[in-house]
Amino acid sequence: MAAASGLAGTAWHVLNIWPTPAHLQLDQTIEFGADGTLTVMTGCATYAGTYQAAEDELMIDIQQVLGSTIECGYRDQGLADLYRNILGSVASWSIDEDGYLSFEPNADYAGWNIGLEPVSGEVPVEATGAPSPGSE
């Protein structure tokens, strides 16, 4: 896998982390650098790492926290950590015909799903053709 994929140079806003209830969601964004770097902003903490992507496979490695998380409350820090852990277990990605990005974790988080929309409001990459979970 390589960083130079359809995700390179894009930014996405997290719509949902299923099955986390909507009232527990944080305002989260993920940016895929063209050089394989990754920045995850959870509204409470910012994480940096790397990614590798190919076709529908994706590997994310969150390596460090940028800045302090001291202003994070207990609940928000726990949700940010959960999000970081789920991202670290992502095994595949797809973009549906409506332009929404979906991450599927490996067996460690079986049943979980992360749904994202482009930050710009415009779909930056073509749909992969793979169905989004739950769309069948």
Structure description:
- The structure is a single chain.
- The chain is mainly beta and 136 residues long.
- The protein has a single domain (10-118), classed as Lipocalin (Beta Barrel), CATH 2.40.128.270.
- The chain is 11% helix and 40% strand.
- The protein is built from one helix and eight strands, in the order βββββαβββ.
- It has one helix at residues 74-88, and strands at 10-18, 29-32, 37-41, 46-54, 57-66, 90-95, 101-105, 113-118.
- It has an eight-stranded antiparallel sheet with strand order 5-4-3-2-1-8-7-6.
- A hairpin with a 2-residue loop joins strand 4 (46-54) and strand 5.
- The longest helix is centred in the middle third of the chain and has 15 residues, at 74-88.
- The radius of gyration is 14 Å and the shape is globular.
- The chain starts with 9 loop residues before the first strand and ends in an 18-residue tail after the last strand.
- Mean pLDDT is 78; it is low at 127-136.
Secondary-structure map with pairings?
Layout: E1 10-18, E2 29-32, E3 37-41, E4 46-54, E5 57-66, H1 74-88, E6 90-95, E7 101-105, E8 113-118
Antiparallel strand pairs: 1-2, 1-8, 2-3, 3-4, 4-5, 6-7, 7-8
CATH architecture: Beta Barrel
Shape: globular
- The third-level CATH topology is Lipocalin
| Model regions low in confidence, pLDDT < 50 over at least 5 residues | 127-136
Rounded Rg: 14 Å
Percent helix among the residues?
Answer: 10-25%
Distance between the termini: 28 Å
Number of domains in the coordinates?
1
SS class: mainly beta
Mean pLDDT rating: 78
How many strands, what sense, and barrel or not for the largest sheet?
8 strands, antiparallel
CATH class descriptor? Mainly Beta
The succession of helices and strands, N to C, reads EEEEEHEEE
**Tally of DSSP β-strands:** 8
- As a percent range, the share of strand residues is 35-45%
Helical run tally: 1
Main sheet: strand order? 5-4-3-2-1-8-7-6
